[in-house]
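Re: the multi-chain job from yesterday

Posting the exact lines I submitted so nobody has to dig through the queue logs.
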Amino acid sequence: MNAFTPVTLPKPDPAAVQTVVEALTARFGNRAVTSKAVREQHANTLTWLPVEAPDVVVYPQSTDEVVEIVKLCAAHKVPMVPFGTGTSFEGHTNAPIGGVSIDTSMMNKIIAVHPEDLDVVIEPGITRKALNEQLRDTGLFFPIDPGADASLGGMVSTRASGTNAVRYGTMKDNVMALKVVLPSGEVVTTARRAKKSSAGYDLTRLFVGAEGTLGIITEITLKLYGIPEAISAGICPFPSVRAACDATIMTIQSGLPVARIELADAMQVRAFNLHSKLGLEEKPMLFVEFHGTDRGVEEQAQRFGEIAKEFGGGPFEWATKPEERTKLWQARHDAYWAAFALRPGVKTIATDVCVPISRLAECVEETHEDIERTGILAPIVGHVGDGNFHLTPLVDPDSPEEVAVMQAFLERLVERALKMEGTCTGEHGVGQAKMKYLLKEHPAATLDAMRAIKHAFDPHNIMNPGKIVQF
Amino acid sequence: MNAFTPVTLPKPDPAAVQTVVEALTARFGNRAVTSKAVREQHANTLTWLPVEAPDVVVYPQSTDEVVEIVKLCAAHKVPMVPFGTGTSFEGHTNAPIGGVSIDTSMMNKIIAVHPEDLDVVIEPGITRKALNEQLRDTGLFFPIDPGADASLGGMVSTRASGTNAVRYGTMKDNVMALKVVLPSGEVVTTARRAKKSSAGYDLTRLFVGAEGTLGIITEITLKLYGIPEAISAGICPFPSVRAACDATIMTIQSGLPVARIELADAMQVRAFNLHSKLGLEEKPMLFVEFHGTDRGVEEQAQRFGEIAKEFGGGPFEWATKPEERTKLWQARHDAYWAAFALRPGVKTIATDVCVPISRLAECVEETHEDIERTGILAPIVGHVGDGNFHLTPLVDPDSPEEVAVMQAFLERLVERALKMEGTCTGEHGVGQAKMKYLLKEHPAATLDAMRAIKHAFDPHNIMNPGKIVQF
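And the result, structure tokens for all chains:
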């Protein structure tokens, strides 16, 4: 297998596909779309994996409608691909053997907010920014922030995390319950609204990170948090990546409840300067943010400044004004787009690995040496509090040599992370592109166990086929 | 089905059982025990469910030995029951159709501590107290504390939580990876040591709370935390359970990072006084504990005192001296045993439910009314920060009338919790005794999904059969 040659799957019967497309068009009218542009937009937009378009895109408005669609597809053994906003990186929404893309963007309501219980029940199509805008008056917010304005259904499905997972955890830690339409059309509710439960197998966590291969999520109960009384953010340059990582380790170990702690290497800082006109010193840089009371964040920022200094970092400049903070974090969030400023006109494969934090400096340093040796342009940003970092190698897709160099580089990156007890993906997920790395990460028995789950839930391999594990 | 009439299961072939017992005795010598006393001690000690003893108890010392035992049992289709310390409440370790109890108490080593990564790799038989004693010199600790000195393997398997889950989460949140011997004898490692991962289905969480029905855990990687610089604890009486619950809600909502917040009702306080000679005012009482810096815990305690006062609570007395704190928490931990002081000579069924915190006061009040109406003696303690509470109804097991009254009372308790969007068990697990409640808690499709997982992993139903869901 190879990241760029997807798994071979038996194609569905063309007549069955035709029947399903016609039935959907008859039933859903202009909510069932077969135009090439829309179909291709639902395949895969953010990688250079081959575009594999579905045969039809349908926009349900309720769980009942999803059930209808799923039962129709199941009856004809036609594949389904759940779709949120299409901002995932690994080909999750591609339709390798066609079928029906089920776009949840019209299921974007808040069903219920429970301020006393610090939870909210939502439909899967709402995006994280829309959710937080609608929550603002309650004084509560949902913290998980993968950068893109992804749908919550997509974030559940890729087990997303992002910049402030170091404080609030990942989607795994913040989903309380799900409603899921299984490949059979049966509707499962995974849990009730109690904060904890020992009532049977943890179906919630089974669907978190399942990338839509076990069912379609139609309702999500999420934990919420009080909007912090005070937020302060700052940046701190370091003499080396190692120094920045060591300062991060010390920060985490000392129990400082940092909300975000993000590394950008010198090349990424250069990209920020070019893209966002920031005028930052082009050295490895930590972006940090603290949440708490006024006194609390002041104390935290001060302690962080002291730790940074111990490792030769500084000056630590901090911004408590919202507009300065927004500017800084907007720059950080634009890391992916900023990277292109370093080499306009090329493409990239944004990738991520995650290692135990004690190995992070070593892993980033070795990766830097590899970057220098191969002459590749690959800025690094990292959620370093979690040991997770991202690369955006900038490569001319029309140059087979460059593509080959990058592929070999990515292989070595994963090998390096795995050798250090890490994982081939901290938060992007497997999709199509990382299936081959999963084979290296897990022993055969583990992959067999995953496959057993897939077979138990989706015996005909009609739910987002060709993702995560070979059927 | 009924809590006291376990599921009917086909018995294994007696000749096959005989063969397995002989093979184990030959292979493991005095680490395979068939004495009635040891077998019965491995069945079920903490409920009055009928004792269903295994045919043999075997004490493996390594994953390889567990694999040997499992393969032997699998070859002869003889049931296996994993065993930790036997402190679970719902008949988890009973062997309804006999077979082999696999006691992990000799697998009790720490395999590796990684202080920089704040994690530890252990064998499943180590108990939480032994773990924390051995960790002490590192300045780190494992916070989850269900009261009993349970084994970590058992705590993983029941998704245990306990008094400080409100701050540190439950086992679900603190297990990073597992090594598990499946019913086939295959060995699965669920994840690597990276702090987060999106590399496939979350097998870790699937085994957390599976009560040993999907495999036998032989290695556990746990998150650790720095021992707090300062700890302060205190108690605060309230005029009513509702006032105590309302103060708890306010505490949680205001973001006060309380480490423990425990309710005891007036009857339970009376039991504490009788059992631990405490001389406490016999009113609803909150036990609280704060972790942090010296300044931090002082600030937290002060804010909590103010909140308590708003709801008519007080005086809030707090103890920073370790010996005072230990005395208080020892009393709290002895709640189960203390209950018997109220009516010596009887038995109890310790049970727990969990509701959204906004419904907690209502749920406890209605339960109190029910207690008064039925004349049952049932003190209540609760991990109220999570909406979770425990009852220990004290009943003469030789009185069919009392037993019937209690059974009806427990039914109503579960119905009440479910009606309030709660769960039939917050942390004890399902085992045998709560299977019938699981049928009320989850829709049929959810139970079918759980059953599908069980069938996928254990097609012959030999791994802890007769627990959680009907096969």
